């Protein structure tokens, strides 16, 4: 048998040369299951994607009667008929459901062929593919065929040796050669008049980097040997499912007759690409300064030489609105002026707006203006600032001053300048204004989010009270809010000195984020404190707290753990409602998670009462209560986090405060995705 090696090198092997190939089409595009049965129907071969598609491992099915295992009862008669015909020497095709190992059926199309079994008697060979995969491949091939036969754009497929594999009629007409005359040839053999070495160099770059490139080429082809033609081309990598480069896809458009139109279209394409990039760079962040910096980066150097994004101080600090913030602009992001002797005006400097200046006019009228440089000087509020006079050293040129408006509100100004010998034309001003308008909404979203985040954080922190002094019990707590890209959650901690002399330890987590979660947390904390002061046992406290959560609405859920420490018995009663299990480290370093009892989260309908676990806490042992943010993240699952926590607590620091600090530092990423609360208690 002669096989083609497609694993490296690109082109076809020499005729008649045996080679071993990679069945990539069966692995990536159309997974094929192959199995064979002997004359008694027993499976003796189970190969390729059979296990992936049907769930049976070879050792589970080889030697078994295949028909009862693989064919549903309703199709046994048809399968038996096809099998009998195959054993009689006939190759047949069929389509019927095949039973997966887990019991569900898989619709498959199959080819059943006669084959000699290991004893030499008539058997059957089945090659099967999932019907849906066959359909997708059929549709994909039809789409590819339609593209090649109907597209007015010249299209070509080239292998890794940059030899033509296929071209469509449009490209054949451009090149003045029949499509069949291209196959197997290099570009220079078909159209030597277009600098083929440079074209092939770009294509090799595509194969190496896996990134498409654009090209504009002038030359002559056999179609028009006496006339120069101009083409716009793109070369894109053709890759397999695992990223292996198979060749290059080339598309070619003859733009000779419309150079002016082409230039306009190309410019529009670049501008649309810039807008799309701006959406990705600015529209995907809720960080205010990152959004402002993204806008500056989109403007410079593509459209301007310098740019500044400046927000009104009264917008940045709405709670401080008054005479002190009136007519002030705060520079959030800026670029280095090309010709400024004083260097770069730093961001995060506040300037006073000069009355009657272009800045004041644009803010008042809410209309952009193009004005000559230099601009009026903006004086910094802090006189000793490195940029005490912004624009005081502006080089000659032109500036576009645009109001930053969103949701009917003026947020500030964006100033884009050009010191090059090129004015802002009409298309430039439209694009600059459009970029600013799109960025304004994203900047406002980031501003509003930052305000909400800070409000929730302030509410959260206002509810965290100082720890009481408890005789015979060392305590340490820690709370870390989510990073600025994530909303504050509803975590809370409380330590109570109960009327009967015992100590109550409470930790909870309201599901959800933002101000609402923090507000619900505040209500539950108050209810929990009130119930605890009634000396209720832990299970009854959570029972009534569950009723309180239900009264807040169907959408509210929370987890909670409540522990009551009794110094006289050196023991603790603990009840949990959907909360992660507390960790207990004894003085010898033995670690255990208290997982015996756990009810459903608060707010979830339940059939049983909460249960209480009794735990002995000898002097020197450490009890750790925590929220799920400590042990769970996008990088690892809960089990991994619990393992890390146990490993860390096996060697605690001398004081609980040191243990807490090291715990938060080593277990959490630099930007936690969720709030984290932790409470440590150690009897003395």
Automatic annotation (TrEMBL):
One Gene Ontology term of the molecular function aspect: ATP binding
Under Enzyme Commission nomenclature, its number is 3.1.3.16
Q: Which parts of the chain span the membrane according to its record?
A: none
Residue ranges the record marks as coiled coil: none
Matches recorded under PANTHER family: STAGE II SPORULATION PROTEIN E (PTHR43156:SF2), STAGE II SPORULATION PROTEIN E-RELATED (PTHR43156)
Task: Indicate the enzyme's highest-level EC class.
Answer: hydrolase
SMART domains xref list? PAS, PP2C_SIG
Give the source species. Streptomyces lucensis JCM 4490
User: Gene3D superfamilies from the entry?
Assistant: 3.30.450.40, PAS domain (3.30.450.20), PPM-type phosphatase domain (3.60.40.10)
GO BP terms, alphabetized: regulation of DNA-templated transcription
Which InterPro entries does this UniProt record tie to the protein? Bact_Sigma-Reg, GAF-like_dom_sf, PAS, PAS-like_dom_sf, PAS_4, PAS_fold, PPM-type-like_dom_sf, PPM-type_phosphatase-like_dom
Q: Which UniProt keywords apply?
A: ATP-binding, Hydrolase, Kinase, Magnesium, Manganese, Metal-binding, Nucleotide-binding, Phosphoprotein, Protein phosphatase, Transferase
This chain belongs to the protein called protein-serine/threonine phosphatase
What is the stated purpose of this protein?
Primarily acts as an independent SigF regulator that is sensitive to the osmosensory signal, mediating the cross talk of PknD with the SigF regulon. Possesses both phosphatase and kinase activities. The kinase domain functions as a classic anti-sigma factor-like kinase to phosphorylate the anti-anti-sigma factor domain at the canonical regulatory site, and the phosphatase domain antagonizes this activity.
User: From which lineage does this chain's organism come?
Assistant: Bacteria, Bacillati, Actinomycetota, Actinomycetes, Kitasatosporales
Does Iron-sulfur count among this protein's keywords? no
Chain ranges of the PAS domain: 28-73
- A Pfam family (short name) is PAS_4
Q: Which reaction does it catalyse?
A: O-phospho-L-seryl-[protein] + H2O = L-seryl-[protein] + phosphate
């Amino acid at each position: 048998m002669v096989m083609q090696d497609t694993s490296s090198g690109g082109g076809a092997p020499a005729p008649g040369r045996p080679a071993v190939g990679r069945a990539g089409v069966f692995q990536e595009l159309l997974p094929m299951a192959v199995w064979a049965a002997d004359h008694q129907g027993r499976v003796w071969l189970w190969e390729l994607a059979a296990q992936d598609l049907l769930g049976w491992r070879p050792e589970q099915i080889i030697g078994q009667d295949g028909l009862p295992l693989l064919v549903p009862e309703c199709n046994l008669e048809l399968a038996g008929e096809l099998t009998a015909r195959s054993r009689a020497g006939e190759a047949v095709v069929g389509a019927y459901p095949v039973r997966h190992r887990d019991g569900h059926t898989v619709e498959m199309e199959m080819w059943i062929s006669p084959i000699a079994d290991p004893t030499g008697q008539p058997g059957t060979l089945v090659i099967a593919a999932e019907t849906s995969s066959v359909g997708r491949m059929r549709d994909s091939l039809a789409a590819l065929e339609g593209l090649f036969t109907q597209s007015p754009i010249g299209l070509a497929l080239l292998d890794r040796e940059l030899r033509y594999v296929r071209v469509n009629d449009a490209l054949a007409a451009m090149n003045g050669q029949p499509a069949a005359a291209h196959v197997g040839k290099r570009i220079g053999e078909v159209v030597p008049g277009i600098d083929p070495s440079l074209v092939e160099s770009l294509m090799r770059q595509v194969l190496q980097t896996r990134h498409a490139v654009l090209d504009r080429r002038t030359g002559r082809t056999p179609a028009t040997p006496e006339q120069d033609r101009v083409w716009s081309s793109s070369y894109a990598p053709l890759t397999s499912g695992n990223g292996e480069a198979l060749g290059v896809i080339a598309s070619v458009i003859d733009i000779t007759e419309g150079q002016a139109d082409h230039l306009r279209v190309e410019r529009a394409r670049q501008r649309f690409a810039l807008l799309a990039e701006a959406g990705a760079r600015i529209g995907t962040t809720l960080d205010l300064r990152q959004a402002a910096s993204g806008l500056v980066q989109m403007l410079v150097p593509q459209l301007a030489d310098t740019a500044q994004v400046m927000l009104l101080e009264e917008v940045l600090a709405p709670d401080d609105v008054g005479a002190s913030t009136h007519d002030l602009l705060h520079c959030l992001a800026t670029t280095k002026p090309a010709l400024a002797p004083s260097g770069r005006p730093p961001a995060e400097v506040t300037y006073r707006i000069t009355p009657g200046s272009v800045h004041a006019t644009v803010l008042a009228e809410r209309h952009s203006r193009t004005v000559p440089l230099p601009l009026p000087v903006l004086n910094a509020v802090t006189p000793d600032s490195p940029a005490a006079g912004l624009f005081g050293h502006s080089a000659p040129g032109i500036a576009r001053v645009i109001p930053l408006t969103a949701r009917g509100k003026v947020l500030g100004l964006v100033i884009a300048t050009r010191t090059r010998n090129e004015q802002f034309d009409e298309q430039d001003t439209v694009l600059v204004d459009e970029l600013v308008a799109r960025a304004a909404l994203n900047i406002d979203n980031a501003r509003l989010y930052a305000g909400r985040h800070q409000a929730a954080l302030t509410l959260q922190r206002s509810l965290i009270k100082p720890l009481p002094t408890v005789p015979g019990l060392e305590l340490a707590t820690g709370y870390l809010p989510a990073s600025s890209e994530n909303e504050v959650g509803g975590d809370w901690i409380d330590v109570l000195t109960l009327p009967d002399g015992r100590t109550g330890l409470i930790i909870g987590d309201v599901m959800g984020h933002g101000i609402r979660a923090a507000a619900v947390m505040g209500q539950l904390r108050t209810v929990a404190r009130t119930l605890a002061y009634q000396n209720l046992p832990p299970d009854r406290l959570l029972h009534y707290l569950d009723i309180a959560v239900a009264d807040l609405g169907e959408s509210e859920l929370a987890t909670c753990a409540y522990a009551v420490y009794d110094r006289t018995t050196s023991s603790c009663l603990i009840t949990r409602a959907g909360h992660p299990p507390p960790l207990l480290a004894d003085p010898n370093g033995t670690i255990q998670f208290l997982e015996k009892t756990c009810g459903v989260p608060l707010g979830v309908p339940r059939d049983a009462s909460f249960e209480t676990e009794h735990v002995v806490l000898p002097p020197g042992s450490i009890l750790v209560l925590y929220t799920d943010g400590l042990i769970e993240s996008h990088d690892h699952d809960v089990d991994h986090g619990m393992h890390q926590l146990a490993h860390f607590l096996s060697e605690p620091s001398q004081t609980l405060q040191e243990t807490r600090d090291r715990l938060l530092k080593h277990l959490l990423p630099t930007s936690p995705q969720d709030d984290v609360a932790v409470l440590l208690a150690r009897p003395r």
